[in-house]
Amino acid sequence: MLMKLGAGVLVASLGLGVGTGVAVHQYGTVVVRVEERGPAGHSFTIPVPLALARLAVSFVPVEELRAEAAELRLASRLAAAVTEELSQYPDTVLVQVESPDESVLVYTADGELCVDVDTSDERVTVRVPLWGATQILEVLAERAEPLPAESTQD
Fold this sequence. Notes:
The protein is an alpha+beta fold. It is about 50% helix and about 30% strand. A hairpin with a 2-residue loop joins β4 and β5 (about 110-120).
């Protein structure tokens, strides 16, 4: 009996792990890396699965979303159009700004939108999968739409 229970727990754990892996693979991961300069500087990387962001969207109050429904629809359509266009081109630099104190580079690479900010104090890099972020906006826009009016039966 104990072996059957252990086997059941193992199968459930494997199923949860595979399901989580599929969700992370499907939506991708946003990665933020910060490197502080100097002898006491710290470095850290924060990977955030977009599947987690998709889950977090479900906690945004619908009333708040509906107040911004038109803007969310527009942002979703624009993001989809931009993502589609960017996916048609090879990896490219979109914006590059250099100043004496900092540099900012925005580019696409391997299906991701990349932002690198380099200052005398730190270097910050952000990687966002193009389609994953667009899908989050689509979910927000869909949640913002009012439900169809219920029909009444006479």
